[in-house]
Amino acid sequence: MFSTINSILDAVDSFVWGVPLIVLILATGVLLTVRVKGLQFSKLGLALKSIFRKPDGKNGEVTSFAALCTALSATIGTGNIVGVATAIVSGGPGALFWMWLAALLGMATKYSECLLSVHFREVKEDGHIVGGPFYTIEKGMGRKWKWLAVLFAIFGTMVGLFGIGTFSQVNSISNAVTSFFDPDSTMSVVLFGRAYSRVTVITSLVLAAFVALVLFGGLKRISKVASVIVPFMVILYVFFGIIIIILNITKVPAAFAEIFRSAFGFRAAAGGALGAMIVAMQKGIARGIFSNEAGLGSAPIAASAAQVAHPVQQGLVSMTGTFFDTIIICTITGLVIVLSGTWKPELGLQGYMVTKTAFCSLLPINSTFVSFCLMICLVLFAFTTILGWDYYSERCIEYLCGGKLGVVKGYRVLYIVAVFFGPYMTISAVWTIADIVNGLMAIPNIISLIVLSGTVSKLTKDFFAKSSRLQ
Hints:
Number of helices: 22
Shape: globular
Radius of gyration: 21 Å
Helix content: over 70%
Low-confidence stretches: none
Strand order of the largest sheet: 1-2
Strand content: under 5%
Number of strands: 4
Structural class: mainly alpha
Order of helices and strands: HHHHHHHEEHHHEEHHHHHHHHHHHH
Largest sheet: 2 strands, antiparallel
């Protein structure tokens, strides 16, 4: 039965993430890069400095930094540790190259979608801010496109409930914790007709409880928790990664060469280069978007709550999220995996174990300590992603039900239940479902970005024409 379900999911995934969607996402990144004149490169320094800008807007619920941390809490997750590993195992080291390309173009995409979200946001009677691609589509493209906004909200809810938000994150957390405390599954218990480690069961209960404690505090509690956890977990993970790269600096050029050869199928046998390249491209872009969410339409929901005087200000801050997520963190993970060789299919490693084995084999310190630190990083990464995606999907539900907060609270309970059941899903099914709903969510958002690219260009020109006053 499970094999049949996995086969069906794989077929749907291949269709959704076929060449047309990959081309559409990359082409949109190219279009927006041209419309904003390569702003992701020329204004990156300004964007980084703007992260800690003091609030200067009348509307908004949180600072630009808090909005960025809320977005990063959702983007920096298992995609950075497990997602990169699955992409390299499935598509070869070349998948990392396509992650980079998608991220560099995706910075323009992230800038544009967050700018539009702030521009078209609404302030409700009780003072809270609502915004995101559904409002961008409805107000920017017109009421006749409301059906597209509704589609986005439906897919966004599915991504939160079945994709990035719950199953994939909780599954990765439980696997990491169980592999550390009960690697041989000696403490097993039968649930749902299958044997699971008691550690897995305890993890699901504790995690669901902690998620509930934070979620019932609303956006401000989520952003407060994220503002503390996100910087800490990033620094810890990057620290270990940089140590490995420095210790293996003489092997880094060869690792990059391996990545580029694999990206264009040069390692494949004669006649198989194009197929190998397409697989690397597909896995790299899909996992890259899973990780940094550029073009997905999620980060704009958090960005819309920022206290800024001009939409461009938050667009600049938001695009740094893609830079931190993929260009820095995913690159570190990918390089460590390529340097160690743990991605090779003959080793039979999957998901988290690929990254864990890579770090343990290359760090010259106690492997148990390394495993523990890596487990903590993954738990924190995934925990904050669960929080961020609840906020995103709640805003989608709020849009769909016309602002009925009772429905939103009911969804929040359902979300917590999904967190509890996450560990009991199979790894392959979890990641395939996440890929499918990610792709479906991206389509309405990408359409709106193409249609409203002129608005992005105009707002950008207006801001920098008055930059001496607003910056």
